[in-house]
Amino acid sequence: MNFYKYHALGNDYLVIDPRDWPTEFTPPQIARICHRNYGVGSDGILWGPLPGQSGAPFALRIFNPDGGEAQKSGNGLRIFCRYLFDQGLVRHTPFRVHTRGGVVEATVHDGGRTITVAMGGVRFDSTAVPVAGAPREVIRETMRVDGESLTFTSATVGNPHCVIERPGTTVADVHRLGPLIERHANFPERTNVQFMTVRDRNAIEILIWERGAGYTLASGSSSSAAAAVAHRLGLVDRTVTVHMPGGTIAIEIGDNYAITMTGPVTRVAQGTMSPEMLENCNE
Protein backbone atom coordinates (compact mmCIF):
# COMPACT_ATOMS: atom_id res chain seq x y z
CA MET A 1 0.00 0.00 0.00
CA ASN A 2 1.55 3.27 -1.12
CA PHE A 3 1.48 6.40 1.01
CA TYR A 4 2.51 10.02 0.55
CA LYS A 5 3.46 12.04 3.61
CA TYR A 6 3.19 15.83 3.85
CA HIS A 7 3.11 18.34 6.66
CA ALA A 8 1.42 21.71 6.98
CA LEU A 9 3.23 23.69 9.67
CA GLY A 10 4.16 20.49 11.50
CA ASN A 11 0.66 18.99 11.26
CA ASP A 12 1.43 15.83 9.27
CA TYR A 13 -0.87 13.59 7.26
CA LEU A 14 -0.60 10.49 5.11
CA VAL A 15 -2.39 10.58 1.76
CA ILE A 16 -3.58 7.11 0.76
CA ASP A 17 -5.21 6.67 -2.64
CA PRO A 18 -8.32 4.43 -2.66
CA ARG A 19 -6.86 2.67 -5.67
CA ASP A 20 -4.23 1.26 -3.30
CA TRP A 21 -6.68 0.58 -0.44
CA PRO A 22 -10.22 0.40 -1.88
CA THR A 23 -12.04 -0.66 1.32
CA GLU A 24 -12.71 1.66 4.26
CA PHE A 25 -10.13 1.46 7.04
CA THR A 26 -11.19 0.04 10.38
CA PRO A 27 -10.54 2.25 13.42
CA PRO A 28 -7.81 -0.10 14.73
CA GLN A 29 -6.08 -0.02 11.32
CA ILE A 30 -6.16 3.78 11.31
CA ALA A 31 -4.75 3.92 14.82
CA ARG A 32 -1.96 1.48 13.91
CA ILE A 33 -0.96 3.32 10.73
CA CYS A 34 -0.88 6.69 12.52
CA HIS A 35 1.01 5.37 15.56
CA ARG A 36 4.50 6.86 15.72
CA ASN A 37 6.06 3.68 17.12
CA TYR A 38 4.05 0.85 15.59
CA GLY A 39 3.06 2.47 12.30
CA VAL A 40 4.21 5.10 9.83
CA GLY A 41 3.22 7.91 12.19
CA SER A 42 0.99 10.89 11.43
CA ASP A 43 -1.73 13.23 12.74
CA GLY A 44 -4.23 11.57 10.43
CA ILE A 45 -5.01 9.88 7.11
CA LEU A 46 -6.37 11.55 3.98
CA TRP A 47 -8.20 8.92 1.94
CA GLY A 48 -8.73 10.16 -1.56
CA PRO A 49 -9.40 11.17 -4.22
CA LEU A 50 -12.80 9.54 -4.09
CA PRO A 51 -15.49 10.06 -6.77
CA GLY A 52 -16.74 13.63 -6.82
CA GLN A 53 -19.88 14.74 -5.00
CA SER A 54 -22.11 17.82 -4.83
CA GLY A 55 -20.59 19.31 -7.96
CA ALA A 56 -17.00 18.87 -6.76
CA PRO A 57 -14.74 16.74 -8.99
CA PHE A 58 -12.86 15.31 -5.98
CA ALA A 59 -14.02 13.96 -2.64
CA LEU A 60 -11.96 13.32 0.49
CA ARG A 61 -12.41 11.48 3.76
CA ILE A 62 -10.30 12.49 6.75
CA PHE A 63 -9.45 10.10 9.59
CA ASN A 64 -8.07 11.06 13.00
CA PRO A 65 -5.37 8.97 14.69
CA ASP A 66 -7.87 7.68 17.25
CA GLY A 67 -9.71 5.95 14.40
CA GLY A 68 -12.55 8.46 14.18
CA GLU A 69 -13.53 10.50 11.13
CA ALA A 70 -13.26 14.29 10.88
CA GLN A 71 -15.71 16.43 8.93
CA LYS A 72 -13.09 18.92 7.79
CA SER A 73 -9.42 19.84 8.28
CA GLY A 74 -7.86 22.99 6.89
CA ASN A 75 -4.32 21.62 6.99
CA GLY A 76 -5.51 18.27 5.68
CA LEU A 77 -7.26 19.97 2.78
CA ARG A 78 -4.17 21.97 1.87
CA ILE A 79 -2.10 18.78 1.94
CA PHE A 80 -4.64 16.89 -0.16
CA CYS A 81 -4.69 19.72 -2.71
CA ARG A 82 -0.89 19.63 -2.89
CA TYR A 83 -1.11 15.87 -3.51
CA LEU A 84 -3.61 16.40 -6.34
CA PHE A 85 -1.24 18.96 -7.85
CA ASP A 86 1.78 16.68 -7.48
CA GLN A 87 -0.15 13.89 -9.24
CA GLY A 88 -1.02 16.19 -12.14
CA LEU A 89 -4.75 16.06 -11.36
CA VAL A 90 -5.12 19.83 -10.90
CA ARG A 91 -3.29 22.94 -12.00
CA HIS A 92 -3.10 26.49 -10.66
CA THR A 93 -6.73 27.25 -11.48
CA PRO A 94 -9.36 26.97 -8.69
CA PHE A 95 -11.02 23.60 -8.13
CA ARG A 96 -13.46 22.12 -5.61
CA VAL A 97 -13.19 19.30 -3.06
CA HIS A 98 -16.04 17.62 -1.19
CA THR A 99 -15.61 16.79 2.52
CA ARG A 100 -18.08 15.61 5.16
CA GLY A 101 -18.01 19.21 6.41
CA GLY A 102 -18.96 20.69 3.04
CA VAL A 103 -17.48 21.60 -0.32
CA VAL A 104 -14.45 23.91 -0.44
CA GLU A 105 -12.71 25.72 -3.29
CA ALA A 106 -8.92 25.62 -3.45
CA THR A 107 -6.15 27.27 -5.45
CA VAL A 108 -2.55 26.08 -5.69
CA HIS A 109 0.32 28.57 -5.72
CA ASP A 110 4.12 28.39 -5.90
CA GLY A 111 4.28 24.94 -7.44
CA GLY A 112 2.22 23.49 -4.62
CA ARG A 113 4.11 25.02 -1.72
CA THR A 114 1.27 27.40 -0.83
CA ILE A 115 -2.45 26.61 -0.97
CA THR A 116 -5.48 28.87 -0.55
CA VAL A 117 -8.75 27.27 0.57
CA ALA A 118 -12.14 28.96 0.78
CA MET A 119 -13.30 27.17 3.93
CA GLY A 120 -16.91 28.36 3.90
CA GLY A 121 -18.84 30.39 6.42
CA VAL A 122 -18.37 30.15 10.18
CA ARG A 123 -21.51 29.82 12.31
CA PHE A 124 -21.94 30.33 16.05
CA ASP A 125 -25.35 28.71 16.36
CA SER A 126 -25.56 26.06 19.07
CA THR A 127 -27.60 23.67 16.95
CA ALA A 128 -25.04 23.80 14.14
CA VAL A 129 -21.86 23.38 16.24
CA PRO A 130 -23.47 21.56 18.22
CA VAL A 131 -23.58 22.78 21.85
CA ALA A 132 -25.98 21.47 24.46
CA GLY A 133 -28.86 23.61 25.71
CA ALA A 134 -31.41 25.94 24.20
CA PRO A 135 -30.86 27.20 20.63
CA ARG A 136 -28.64 30.30 20.72
CA GLU A 137 -25.43 31.87 19.52
CA VAL A 138 -22.73 30.58 21.86
CA ILE A 139 -20.84 33.81 22.56
CA ARG A 140 -18.66 34.34 25.63
CA GLU A 141 -20.30 31.74 27.81
CA THR A 142 -18.57 30.20 30.83
CA MET A 143 -17.90 26.64 31.92
CA ARG A 144 -16.10 25.08 34.86
CA VAL A 145 -13.18 22.80 33.98
CA ASP A 146 -10.66 21.35 36.44
CA GLY A 147 -11.45 24.04 38.99
CA GLU A 148 -11.19 26.92 36.48
CA SER A 149 -13.92 29.16 35.11
CA LEU A 150 -13.28 29.45 31.36
CA THR A 151 -14.84 31.93 28.92
CA PHE A 152 -15.56 30.33 25.56
CA THR A 153 -17.20 30.95 22.21
CA SER A 154 -18.24 28.03 20.04
CA ALA A 155 -18.21 27.95 16.26
CA THR A 156 -18.43 25.57 13.34
CA VAL A 157 -16.64 25.78 10.02
CA GLY A 158 -17.97 22.34 9.07
CA ASN A 159 -16.51 20.86 12.27
CA PRO A 160 -16.95 21.97 15.91
CA HIS A 161 -14.66 24.41 17.74
CA CYS A 162 -14.48 25.86 21.23
CA VAL A 163 -12.36 29.02 21.43
CA ILE A 164 -11.15 29.82 24.94
CA GLU A 165 -10.01 33.35 25.78
CA ARG A 166 -7.12 32.52 28.11
CA PRO A 167 -3.93 34.59 27.70
CA GLY A 168 -0.85 32.97 29.15
CA THR A 169 -1.90 29.40 28.39
CA THR A 170 1.05 26.99 28.31
CA VAL A 171 1.45 23.69 26.46
CA ALA A 172 1.09 21.95 29.82
CA ASP A 173 -2.24 23.75 30.29
CA VAL A 174 -3.39 22.51 26.88
CA HIS A 175 -2.58 18.91 27.81
CA ARG A 176 -4.41 19.32 31.12
CA LEU A 177 -7.51 21.19 29.96
CA GLY A 178 -7.80 20.16 26.31
CA PRO A 179 -9.05 16.58 26.75
CA LEU A 180 -11.52 17.68 29.44
CA ILE A 181 -12.99 20.39 27.20
CA GLU A 182 -13.03 18.11 24.15
CA ARG A 183 -15.30 15.66 25.99
CA HIS A 184 -17.20 18.19 28.13
CA ALA A 185 -20.95 17.63 28.44
CA ASN A 186 -21.50 20.92 26.57
CA PHE A 187 -20.33 19.23 23.36
CA PRO A 188 -22.37 16.15 22.38
CA GLU A 189 -20.10 15.42 19.40
CA ARG A 190 -16.92 16.47 21.25
CA THR A 191 -15.04 19.53 20.03
CA ASN A 192 -11.75 20.96 18.84
CA VAL A 193 -10.28 23.41 21.33
CA GLN A 194 -8.29 26.62 20.78
CA PHE A 195 -6.72 28.68 23.56
CA MET A 196 -6.56 32.20 22.12
CA THR A 197 -4.52 35.30 22.86
CA VAL A 198 -5.10 38.47 20.81
CA ARG A 199 -1.87 40.26 19.81
CA ASP A 200 -3.37 43.22 17.95
CA ARG A 201 -6.07 44.05 15.42
CA ASN A 202 -4.48 41.80 12.80
CA ALA A 203 -2.90 38.95 14.76
CA ILE A 204 -3.87 36.27 17.25
CA GLU A 205 -2.06 33.34 18.84
CA ILE A 206 -3.62 29.95 19.47
CA LEU A 207 -2.62 26.69 21.11
CA ILE A 208 -4.64 23.72 19.88
CA TRP A 209 -6.16 20.52 21.20
CA GLU A 210 -7.74 18.63 18.29
CA ARG A 211 -10.68 16.31 18.66
CA GLY A 212 -9.37 12.78 18.13
CA ALA A 213 -5.76 13.88 17.70
CA GLY A 214 -4.70 15.76 20.85
CA TYR A 215 -2.11 18.53 21.04
CA THR A 216 -1.31 19.78 17.54
CA LEU A 217 1.33 22.23 16.31
CA ALA A 218 -1.03 23.87 13.80
CA SER A 219 -4.55 23.59 12.41
CA GLY A 220 -6.21 25.28 9.48
CA SER A 221 -9.79 24.83 10.65
CA SER A 222 -8.78 25.97 14.17
CA SER A 223 -7.17 29.07 12.66
CA SER A 224 -10.32 29.76 10.67
CA ALA A 225 -12.62 29.34 13.66
CA ALA A 226 -10.45 31.32 16.08
CA ALA A 227 -10.02 34.24 13.67
CA ALA A 228 -13.78 34.31 13.03
CA VAL A 229 -14.49 34.27 16.77
CA ALA A 230 -12.00 37.08 17.41
CA HIS A 231 -13.69 39.13 14.68
CA ARG A 232 -17.17 38.31 16.01
CA LEU A 233 -16.04 39.59 19.43
CA GLY A 234 -14.76 42.82 17.86
CA LEU A 235 -11.13 42.07 18.75
CA VAL A 236 -9.62 41.92 15.24
CA ASP A 237 -10.23 43.23 11.73
CA ARG A 238 -10.97 41.11 8.63
CA THR A 239 -7.33 40.26 7.83
CA VAL A 240 -5.78 38.11 10.55
CA THR A 241 -2.45 36.30 10.89
CA VAL A 242 -2.85 33.29 13.16
CA HIS A 243 0.32 32.36 15.05
CA MET A 244 0.78 28.76 16.23
CA PRO A 245 3.76 26.75 17.44
CA GLY A 246 4.16 25.30 13.93
CA GLY A 247 4.01 28.66 12.13
CA THR A 248 1.45 31.09 10.73
CA ILE A 249 -1.66 30.96 8.56
CA ALA A 250 -3.23 33.97 6.83
CA ILE A 251 -7.00 34.35 7.23
CA GLU A 252 -9.34 36.67 5.34
CA ILE A 253 -12.84 37.11 6.78
CA GLY A 254 -15.55 37.94 4.27
CA ASP A 255 -19.26 38.59 4.53
CA ASN A 256 -21.18 36.20 6.79
CA TYR A 257 -17.84 35.12 8.24
CA ALA A 258 -16.77 33.38 5.04
CA ILE A 259 -13.16 32.32 5.61
CA THR A 260 -10.33 32.20 3.10
CA MET A 261 -7.23 30.47 4.47
CA THR A 262 -3.72 30.55 2.93
CA GLY A 263 -0.80 28.54 4.23
CA PRO A 264 2.17 26.35 3.29
CA VAL A 265 2.51 22.65 2.58
CA THR A 266 5.75 20.62 2.59
CA ARG A 267 6.21 17.25 0.93
CA VAL A 268 8.03 14.86 3.28
CA ALA A 269 8.21 11.36 1.82
CA GLN A 270 6.53 8.59 -0.10
CA GLY A 271 6.78 4.88 0.46
CA THR A 272 5.07 1.52 0.76
CA MET A 273 3.47 0.16 3.92
CA SER A 274 3.89 -3.52 4.67
CA PRO A 275 0.73 -5.58 5.38
CA GLU A 276 2.66 -7.03 8.30
CA MET A 277 2.19 -3.73 10.14
CA LEU A 278 -1.57 -4.33 10.29
CA GLU A 279 -1.46 -7.92 11.52
CA ASN A 280 -3.56 -8.55 14.64
CA CYS A 281 -4.57 -4.87 14.96
CA ASN A 282 -8.29 -5.71 14.74
CA GLU A 283 -8.19 -8.16 17.64
Give the helix tally: 4
Report the portion of residues in β strands. Answer: 35-45%
Biggest beta-sheet profile: 18 strands, mixed
What is the CATH architecture annotation of the largest domain? Roll
Helix content: 10-25%
Write structural notes for this entry.
The structure is a single chain. The protein has 283 residues and is α+β, with helices and mostly antiparallel strands. It has two domains: 125 residues, Roll (Diaminopimelate Epimerase, Chain A, domain 1); 122 residues, Diaminopimelate Epimerase, Chain A, domain 1, CATH 3.10.310.10. It contains four helices and 18 strands. It has an 18-stranded mixed β-sheet that branches. A hairpin with a 4-residue loop joins strand 7 and strand 8. The longest helix has 13 residues.
Highlighted features:
18 strands, 18-stranded mixed β-sheet, Diaminopimelate Epimerase, Chain A, domain 1, 2 domains, single chain, alpha+beta, 283 residues, 42% strand
Explain briefly what this protein structure is:
The protein is an alpha+beta fold and 283 residues long.
Chain-wise SSE layout:
Layout: E1 2-8, E2 11-16, H1 27-34, E3 45-53, E4 56-63, E5 69-70, H2 74-86, E6 95-99, E7 102-109, E8 114-121, E9 141-145, E10 148-156, E11 160-165, H3 171-182, E12 192-200, E13 203-210, E14 214-216, H4 220-232, E15 239-244, E16 247-253, E17 258-264, E18 266-272
Parallel strand pairs: 2-3, 4-6, 11-12, 13-15
Antiparallel strand pairs: 1-2, 1-18, 3-4, 4-5, 6-7, 7-8, 8-17, 9-10, 10-11, 12-13, 13-14, 15-16, 16-17
